Amino acid sequence: MAQNRRHLNDNSSLDSSQDTFKGLPVGSIRLSGETNEYVIVGDKKYPTHEFMRAFGGMLFNQPIPPQAWNFGNPASLGLSAFAMTTFVLSMVNAGVLNIHKPQIVLGLSCFYGGAVQFAAGIWEFFLGNTFGSVALTLYGAFWLAYSSLFFEAFGVAAAYKGHEDQMRNAIGFFLLGWTLFSFMLFLVTLKSTVPFMSLFITLVITFIFLTSGELANNKTLTKVGGIFGIITSFIAWYNAWAGVATRQNSYFTYYQMPLVKRD
C-alpha cells in the first residue's frame, strides 16, 4: 500500500519514474475509478494524467491515442469535400446575393471537391468499401470534369462559341448523365439510414432541376436546383460529422435511424 501511495503522489511523473517500469512484466493493464482516473499496470496503480502527459504533442483529439495504427475513415473526408463544394456552387445557382458567375467555385471543385474527394474514394478501395469508393471517386471526377468546362486550356467554351444554345444543351446532357448515376446510387441506399438515403434523394432532385434548367433555358428551375443543392450540402455535412463524432470525443453523437429493422 505504501508503494502504491508513492506512485499516486501528485508530483510524480513518468519522466521521473522510468525506473518504476523496469522489470515490470507486460500483462494486465486496466482503468479504475469512477472517471477512469487511474491506470493499473500489473499490481501497481498510476494516475491517468501521467500517461496523458506522456502522449502530449501527438495529433490526437483523445487523451490517449490508440496503440494500433489503423486506417482512418475516409468517408468523412470525402463527404466534407462534397458538401463544401456543393454548398458554394448551389449558393451561386440559387442566386444568393445576386451572384450568378460560378467561377468562384473552381478552386474548390479542383482541389477540394475534386482532388480530395477523389483521393478519399481511392482510400475506400483499400478499405474494401465498394459503394464508398464508387461514389467518392466518381463524384470527385464530376467536380474535376465540371471545372474543365471553364478552363480555356480545355477549349470547351471555345468550341461552342457562337452556339450558346448548343453549349447549354450539352451541359444539360452532361448533368443528365450524373442524374441517372445518382439515381442508381440512391437505389442502393434504401436499406441504409434515413440521413444517408436523404443525401442521395436530395442530390437526385438537385440534378433533375439543374438538368431541366439547362435544357429548357429556365433560370427558375436552376434556382430551385440551387436551393435543393444547399439542402443536399447540409445533409452531406451531417453524414460527414456522423463519421467523426464518437462517444469518446463528442457530447453529441449520431443516431442511425435505420430504414430496415435490425435483428
Automatic annotation (TrEMBL):
InterPro entries: AceTr, Gpr1/Fun34/SatP-like
A cellular-component GO term for this protein: plasma membrane
GO molecular function, one term: acetate transmembrane transporter activity
Coiled-coil residue windows: none
Family note: Belongs to the acetate uptake transporter (AceTr) (TC 2.A.96) family.
Residues passing through the membrane, by range: 75-97, 104-126, 138-158, 170-188, 194-212, 224-244
Keyword annotations of the record: Membrane, Transmembrane, Transmembrane helix
Identification of the protein by name: Ammonia transport outward protein 2
Lineage top rank: taxon: Eukaryota
Topology of this chain in the membrane: Multi-pass membrane protein
Cell compartments where the protein resides: Membrane
